[in-house]
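Researcher: Sequence recovery benchmark, item below. Answer with residues only.
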């Protein structure tokens, strides 16, 4: 099964040792690649276009910014620098880990766009050492060194966004530390799909996953937020974990996956999954409308709000102004309003008797070809839980498939595989 590549970002002030450490990691670890940035800076003579940087003029850089070519870009020391998004995702999609050596502003943007990226902040032992290294590098004038020292203070203030800190004092030790981070991250389950050693205990469970190879999957996930004023909202307990797990399962199957997520506690899919953040139910509907145009499947795992305030106030309602009453109106049914432009699997969280009948009705109402039913009144199942279990029902056949209790990721692999088996069958009929 597919194992996703990781994205490592080394950032820190100029002269901290990012380039030295980034090239060390790429040289030492198989399956890692260095991302060559695009810049408006002039070549320093010995630099090679395509190897050190892609050198472009100002108008070309602006054109690329407009066309969302960059995963991140920033003004650094008077020039613009950026990382190409499609190339990074393509490498990660092939299981290669990408190493970026970029400035701190760019790293902060990466964390927003790709929360599973691994951000490493690099600093020498003191500001005096940084100054010495800049002076000894001999690439900058005294004035430039002064400017870079000033900029360093600002850059350090963003350290809180990062995941790791490496003090680049003794170079050999810093190299080992960066390698250790790489080792630990490459054992994270999020990055390795479902290990074959574990599958050996559930033979057959994931057969059907290969149906999704090369397909385009859109997963809707998390709750939506219906705003009362600029800070308060109506929402629900959805953590987003089931949606992220579905995204991981389809990615592991070799699909191209987009995760459209409301503001969830968990929206950190592996890097090759494109994350699109949405707020309200109507925001989610409009985003899905665009995203499903060429999709092979919509996985509707989001817990969309059923009600939204009739009006919302700008700013912050004041307690001193006394009681307020909240008028709520139903939100539009997203799945119905999207029509039948691609097959849909819905999710139903039900309580009490008659759940299967209600889920079947919901599946029909939502024009879905399948629905995953889980029971909210069973312990450890449903919202805000780490685990799940349930029943997969299909519109075209009477049969149902029981997905046994396990982590949401295990359940997600079972659902994706069972859907794949069913699709394969109907394709062959
Ligand atoms: P950055 O990419 O962060 O601007 P570099 O990797 O170019 O930094 O390193 C700046 C300078 O410091 C280079 O001349 C490099 O050889 C040197 N250097 C890097 N790490 C160390 C270290 N631990 N000890 C001494 N010199 C170092
Ligand atoms: P230089 O011009 O000395 O090669 O690089 C100047 C700074 O730009 C360095 O701090 C480097 O990390 C940063 N940089 C290089 N490429 C990128 C990029 O693609 N994006 C961002 N944000 N910064 C970059």
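Model:
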């Amino acid at each position: 099964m597919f194992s996703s590549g990781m994205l490592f970002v080394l950032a820190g002030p100029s002269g901290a040792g990012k380039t030295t450490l980034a090239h060390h990691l790429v040289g030492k670890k198989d399956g890692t690649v260095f991302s060559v940035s695009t810049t408006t800076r002039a070549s320093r003579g010995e630099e090679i276009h395509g190897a050190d940087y892609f050198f472009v003029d100002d108008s070309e850089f602006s054109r690329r910014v407009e066309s969302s070519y960059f995963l991140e870009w920033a003004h650094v020391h008077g020039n613009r620098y950026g990382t190409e998004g499609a190339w990074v995702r393509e490498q990660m999609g092939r299981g290669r880990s990408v190493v970026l050596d970029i400035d701190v502003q760019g790293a902060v943007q990466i964390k927003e766009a790709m929360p599973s990226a691994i951000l490493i902040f690099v600093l020498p032992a003191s500001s005096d050492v940084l100054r010495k290294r800049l002076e000894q590098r001999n690439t900058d004038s005294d004035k430039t060194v002064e400017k870079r020292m000033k900029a360093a203070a600002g850059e350090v203030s963003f350290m809180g966004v990062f995941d790791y800190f490496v003090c680049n004092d003794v170079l050999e030790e810093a190299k080992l530390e960066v390698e250790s981070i790489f080792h630990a991250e490459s054992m994270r389950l999020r990055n390795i799909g479902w290990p074959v050693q574990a599958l050996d205990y559930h033979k057959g469970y994931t057969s059907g996953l290969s149906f999704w190879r090369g397909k385009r999957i859109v997963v809707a996930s998390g709750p939506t937020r219906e705003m009362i004023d600029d800070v308060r909202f109506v929402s629900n307990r959805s953590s987003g974990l089931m949606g992220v797990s579905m995204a991981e399962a389809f990615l592991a199957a070799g699909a191209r996956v987009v995760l459209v997520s409301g503001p969830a506690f968990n929206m950190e899919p592996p890097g090759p999954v494109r994350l699109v953040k949405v707020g309200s139910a109507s925001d989610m509907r409009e985003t899905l409308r665009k995203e499903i145009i060429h999709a092979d499947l919509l996985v509707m795992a989001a817990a969309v709000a059923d009600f939204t305030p009739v009006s919302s106030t700008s700013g912050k309602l004041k307690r001193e102004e006394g009681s307020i009453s909240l008028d709520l109106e139903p939100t539009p049914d997203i799945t119905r309003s999207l029509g039948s432009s691609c097959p849909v699997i819905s999710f139903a969280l039900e309580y009490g008797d008659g759940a299967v009948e209600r889920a079947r009705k919901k599946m029909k109402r939502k024009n879905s070809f399948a629905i995953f039913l889980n029971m909210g009144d069973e312990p450890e199942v449903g919202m805000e839980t780490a685990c799940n279990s349930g029943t997969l029902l299909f519109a075209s056949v009477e049969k149902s498939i029981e997905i046994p209790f396990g982590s949401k990721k295990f359940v997600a692999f079972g659902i994706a595989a069972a859907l794949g088996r069913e699709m394969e069958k109907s394709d062959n009929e």
